[in-house]
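Let us practice reading a record.
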Amino acid sequence: MTTPPFGRVLTAMVTPFTADGDVDYKRAGELAARLVDDGNDGLVISGTTGEAPTTHRAEKADLLRAVVDAVGGRAKIVAGVGSNDTAHAVMMAEDAAKAGADGVLSVTPYYSKPPQAGVIAHTIAVAEATDLPVMLYDIPGRSAIPMAEATILELARHPQIVAMKDAKLDLESTSHVLRETDLAYYSGQDAVTLPMLAIGAVGVVGTSTHFVARQTQEMIAAFLAGDVAGARAIHESVLPIYTGIFRTQGCILVKAGLALLGFPVGGHRLPLVDATADEITQLKADLQAASVL
């Protein structure tokens, strides 16, 4: 199995906000420390769950610095630099390097639906903006287009492109890429982490791992030790929150769940809204079923 360049369990961290809607940098540092204490050996900052579409470039840089100050050296910090504007993505990658990130997460350019040649050119521009290692992010459900298998194979030849967050749910294609490259694959869908490990993935970039990072670490450790039955038992025990956290947009339920656990991190920026009463009731049940609450 490929050595994991960014750890094995990374949480795509939510971005705390104050009551006025400003980024709460102090709370962000506290949340980062909580997540690392709970078993995360990596964090992704300003990903989808971090409300990257509604935080601005300067806020992202300051947020990243706050997290690096809080947990740098204790966990790998990966900066989301996703944009459908290549020049903007390049600038955010440069900001990430200056702020002390350990790597960058580059998602397929969304909305514009570029051809695969455009995906390749965009990603290489981001990779060559800094000396940081790059994790690709393939999530056609949000980007509108998948990274074609041939595209991934070509990008994998670039020395700085070392990993993939895979949310495409095409295990056959992923198996082909794993056979042909040294990319470190991370599950981008919490509930398929165990099947992904079976074909060669090294870990997960998760959302539910705001709550079950330690159990996820234990599941991965059991699998790597050859205890497949033990890994499956852990997988089944936390499955209610692996899947329940996505009953609506994941960020919404993570923030609601943290509030239920006595660690509020504020609300959201539109178009996201707070969880409804019914959603919170169901979330409580999911957390209880996973022995979190």
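A brief commentary: Strands lie at 9-12, 42-45, 76-80, 103-107, 134-138, 161-166, 184-187, 203-206.
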